[in-house]
Write a structure and sequence with these properties.
- The chain has 13 helices and no strands.
- It is an all-alpha fold and 355 residues long.
- It has two domains: 90 residues, no CATH class; 220 residues, MetI-like fold (Orthogonal Bundle).
- The protein is flat and about 70 Å long.
Length: 355
C-alpha cells in the first residue's frame, strides 16, 4: 500500500504574527544577554551588534520552528525570506548605529539655550548654535533661489527644445558637475570672488550660496528633467490642437503636471547640500557672532560649527564635544524634516487621476 504524504496546502501553519514576535523576542534576549555582559566587563552596549546577532538568532529559530510545524519546504521558503530581511537589516545597521550615537551624545545639550544663544564671548560651557542655524538657513535659502530657476529652465530646454550638439554638450557638463567634489566648488567660489572683488581674504555668506548652488544645479536639472519627460505627450498634443503656443503649454500644462516631482527633487537637492562643510569653510568662514548679512563678513553654518567645535576644543573639552554632537543632531533633524516635506509636497501636488 502506498504511503500517504501530507498535503502541503492543508498542513499546519505558523500564525501570521509569529515571525514578528520571534524577531522581537530574539532582539530582546540578545539585548539582555549583551547588556549583562557589557555591565560585567564595563564596556558600552553596542546596539548595532545586538540587532545583528538577534537577527541571526531569529533566522535560525524561524527555520527550526517552521520545519517542526510546517515541514521542510515551507521552512526553506521562510529561511530565504528571513535572509532577505536580514540583508536589509544589515544595510540599515550603519544608519542605526549613527543615529543612536548622535542622539545619545547630542541630547545633553539639546536644550533651549542651544537654540537661543550664539558662541559670542563663550569660552567653556554654555553658548549655542543660533548663529550657525541662522547662517545655514540664509546660505541654503539663497543657494536655492539661485539653483531652482537655473536648473528648472535648463531642464525645460533639454526636454522641450534641446536638439543637436548644444543639448548634448549641456547634458555632458551636467553629468560632469554631478561628480564635482564639494571642495572644488568652494575653491571656485573663493577664487572667483577674490578676483572680481580684488580681496584675497574674502569671506562672506553669498559666496557660500554660490558654492552650494554649483552642487545643487545638476541635481535639480536631473530630477526636473526626469519629471518633465514622464509627462504624457498626449497632453502636449491636446494643448497644441487647441492652438495654445508651446511656451504657454509648458507653463500651464507640463509644469503643473510634474510640479510634485520637481518640488520633491528640489527639496532633496537642498537636503543634499545643507550638510556640506568644505566649501563653506573656505568661502563663508566661521565666526562666533550673529550675522544676518549674506554680503558682508563671515557667516557660521551648522556643518562648520560642528567641525570647529570638534576640531578646536578649549580647556573644557566635554562642553565643546557636547555642542558638536548637538549641532550634528540638529542637522540630521533638519535633513529629516526636508525629506518629510518632500514627501508631503509630492502627495499634495500629485496629479489627481480619475477612475
Amino acid at each position: 500500500m502506498a504511503t500517504a504524504h501530507p498535503n502541503s496546502l492543508t498542513t499546519a501553519r505558523l500564525p501570521r504574527w509569529s515571525p514578528w514576535a520571534l524577531l522581537a523576542g530574539s532582539w530582546v534576549v540578545v539585548g539582555v544577554i549583551s547588556g549583562l555582559l557589557s555591565a560585567a566587563s564595563g564596556a558600552e552596549l553596542n546596539i548595532a551588534l545586538v540587532v545583528l546577532l538577534g537577527t541571526v538568532v531569529f533566522d535560525v529559530l524561524l527555520y527550526v520552528l517552521a520545519r517542526l510545524v510546517e515541514g521542510s519546504r515551507q521552512a526553506v521558503n521562510r529561511l530565504v525570506t528571513s535572509l532577505v530581511a536580514t540583508a536589509f537589516i544589515i544595510a540599515l545597521l550603519p544608519l542605526i548605529s549613527l543615529l543612536w550615537t548622535v542622539v545619545v551624545n547630542g541630547l545633553p545639550r539639546f536644550d533651549p539655550t542651544f537654540f537661543s544663544n550664539s558662541m559670542r564671548n563663550i569660552v567653556g560651557e554654555g553658548g549655542g548654535a543660533l548663529h550657525a542655524i541662522t547662517g545655514t538657513l540664509l546660505i541654503t535659502g539663497m543657494a536655492t533661489l539661485i539653483s531652482v530657476p537655473v536648473g528648472l529652465l535648463t531642464a525645460i530646454y533639454l526636454v522641450e527644445y534641446g536638439r543637436g550638439p548644444l543639448a548634448r554638450a549641456i547634458t555632458f557638463f551636467v553629468d560632469v558637475m554631478t561628480g564635482i567634489p564639494s571642495i572644488v566648488a568652494g575653491l571656485f567660489a573663493f577664487a572667483f570672488f577674490a578676483l572680481v572683488l580684488q580681496d584675497p581674504g574674502i569671506r562672506f555668506g553669498f559666496g557660500g550660496s554660490v558654492a552650494l548652488s554649483l552642487l545643487m544645479i545638476p541635481v535639480v536639472v536631473r530630477s526636473s528633467e526626469e519629471m518633465l519627460r514622464i509627462v504624457p505627450n498626449e497632453l502636449r498634443e491636446a494643448s497644441y490642437a487647441l492652438g495654445v503656443p508651446k511656451w504657454l503649454t509648458i507653463v500651464r500644462v507640463v509644469i503643473p503636471t510634474s510640479i510634485a516631482g520637481i518640488a520633491t527633487g528640489v527639496t532633496l537637492a537642498i537636503a543634499r547640500v545643507i550638510g556640506e562643510t568644505a566649501p563653506l569653510l573656505i568661502i563663508a568662514g566661521f565666526t562666533a557672532s550673529m550675522n544676518y548679512n549674506l554680503f558682508a563678513d563671515r557667516m557660521m553654518t551648522l556643518p562648520v560649527f560642528v567641525y570647529t567645535q570638534y576640531a578646536n576644543p578649549g580647556t573644557n573639552v566635554d562642553a565643546y564635544l557636547e555642542r558638536a554632537w548637538a549641532g550634528a543632531l540638529t542637522l540630521i533633524l533638519i535633513v529629516m524634516a526636508l525629506n518629510l516635506i518632500a514627501r508631503l509636497i509630492a502627495r499634495i501636488f500629485a496629479p489627481k487621476l480619475g477612475r
